[in-house]
Amino acid sequence: MLAIICGIILLSFVFAVTNPRLSSVSGIFADKSLTQAKNPCIIGTSSTQDKLFPDNLVVNVKTRYAAKGDGVTDDTQAIQKAMRENVGKNKILYFPQGTYLVSDRLEWKDTNGKWQSQLWLQGQNRATTIIRLKNNAPGYNSTSNPRAVVYTASGLYIEQPNGGGKDYPAKGEGNEAFANYIEDLTIDTGNNRGAIALDYLANNIGAVRNVTLQGRGLVGLDMTRKWIGPALIKNVFVEGFDYGIRIAGEVNGITLEHINLCNQKTVGLENLGNVVAIRNLSSSNSVPAVRNTNSTSLITLLDADLRGSSHSVSAIENNSRMFARNVRSSGYRSAIMQDNKVVKGTKIREFTSNAPFTLFKSSANTSLNLPIKESPSFHDNNLSNWANVEDFGAKGKNPDGSDEWGDDTVAIQKALDSRKSTIYIPPGRYFVSDTLHVRGNVRKIFAMGATFSPGGTAFGDINNPKPFFRIEDGTATDVTIEHVSVLNLVQQAPPQAGLIGFEQATSRTLFLKDVTCCSLRPNDQKYVFRNKPGAGKLFIEDVSAEGWQFEHPQQVWARQLNPEGSSEKIFNNGGKLWVLGLKTEGGNVNTVIHTKGGGVSELFGALLYVTGNVSPNQIAFINDNSQVTLSYATISYGANDFQIHVQETRGFKRSQLTRNRLLGHGNGRAVPLYVGGQ
């Protein structure tokens, strides 16, 4: 799990100053961009819903492991047994509604006591599914030696136990914490001062969604172990604790959206060195809502409602790099304190810790402020509307549990055409020799723990590429493809050089969620995504894949995108692209975003992590007669960084933003805001 850095180029007319840049204070304010919460401390049950799943898709902790969930019985041993036997296998541990009383840490260790990743804790409903730590539990009373209630971890697949300074044996640290998910539940630390509700570690793909963390402990959500991210934190409510959310490390970036913080004693959210992208933050506190410190910190904050009750502090304390937009504060001395100096005003339209970078004098000095749309949300609790591909002849495993190597194309297509709303694929390996057509009544494809492997000759011709999934017209207005992994599992076979992971050939909305695609080898794919003329809206969330080819104008919203590898990451030809949280990594890196054809691209909170040498002529971002907003940082450990960060062309004039003109960021560079285009 790498991350790439961007050397920044600056030529010609570049404005690089060290004074904070305030675009609008206390004047015109975009109220419509903010969440208007009457009481940020209260989350009603109306915002939650039950989630039900087929029995053969999840591991039910009540029916399979005899957890009681009655609020009286100690369920620690039952839950720990379930976790030990399923961690590392991409399984879903399902917690039906109830209160699960525990007295010790629920940790990501297998039956051999080895740390693993790839486990999903799924509640029925965050309002009614509660994991509660017993009051005064042994080992949870020391704030100097805190202990978590739930503790995710990294696996150890190719790295060394103490490589890079991590402590895998004792802490489960590492950069192989793939596919760790916590969703739709509450963790309550009770009366235990040394408790951490959730000590979270995830890499490349992983998310905490629809979760409440509450109690009197030290930290609600702790993300300070090596090496957190990239990961997504979404729809999370933290009430109580000294620290609501703590983030550390120089890599690999965290994306947060729809976060509600309340009644912390020290600070709502503290960033101690990472690249953090935040949208829609609500806070009700007497202490600062946000604290950003350390030379490698970069926070991008969009749309915040920060309510305080102390005029002796500012809502945001920033001593590093930051870009903020649409921030409202009340009950504080000011919205922002920059480098220990109060910035006047309680309402901020735009603020940059350092003046925006531009390459032409006629450029604006504010972001593009593209409209932001929410991702679709669909989950069918009527399980009679779910179709299992195995019922149509697909086989992910043999009866004895061994891998099955037959061609599943026809069977999976039959399931897709079965007129059901949700098509699910049980854990296993499925071999596909031709395009799968998503049409008819299909509204969701769900495949946790399943891998699709392209085979045969259909995907082998780079000059005649074919899609693995082709999304076509159908009855539903939107289609979600969730937890799908497309990967060539037969590495001895010829490369699938003509493979396109997903092709959107419909005006319907497409949502790619928790997806990995498409190869272990650079020549095993053409693109991960290609659109056709007239393609509808595209939403991307928690996806690890590179090679996004927006050949035709399209509206795209991406959250937590991890395009690692050596190919061009994103090509935007005339479309509107908005990205919150991006991390890319590698040695033979390539352009991250190429915008042309009058396209518009906004990127907030990106980390470019370079692990090898970058050609002096390589360009991180290309703006070809288009409009671009960027907020990002680079980091490099002993490798050459990008020397050209941005190249902008206007008409026949070309200018470059080079690394030597940019802000320091550890051993990389930081760009709180670049604005290009008229």
From TrEMBL:
<keyword id="KW-0378">Hydrolase</keyword>
<dbReference type="GO" id="GO:0016787">
    <property type="term" value="F:hydrolase activity"/>
</dbReference>
<feature type="domain" description="Rhamnogalacturonase A/B/Epimerase-like pectate lyase">
    <location>
        <begin position="59"/>
        <end position="285"/>
    </location>
</feature>
<dbReference type="Pfam" id="PF12708">
    <property type="entry name" value="Pect-lyase_RHGA_epim"/>
</dbReference>
<feature type="domain" description="Rhamnogalacturonase A/B/Epimerase-like pectate lyase">
    <location>
        <begin position="386"/>
        <end position="437"/>
    </location>
</feature>
<dbReference type="InterPro" id="IPR011050">
    <property type="entry name" value="Pectin_lyase_fold/virulence"/>
</dbReference>
<keyword id="KW-0964">Secreted</keyword>
<protein>
    <submittedName>
        <fullName>Glycoside hydrolase family 55 protein</fullName>
    </submittedName>
</protein>
<dbReference type="InterPro" id="IPR012334">
    <property type="entry name" value="Pectin_lyas_fold"/>
</dbReference>
<dbReference type="InterPro" id="IPR024535">
    <property type="entry name" value="RHGA/B-epi-like_pectate_lyase"/>
</dbReference>
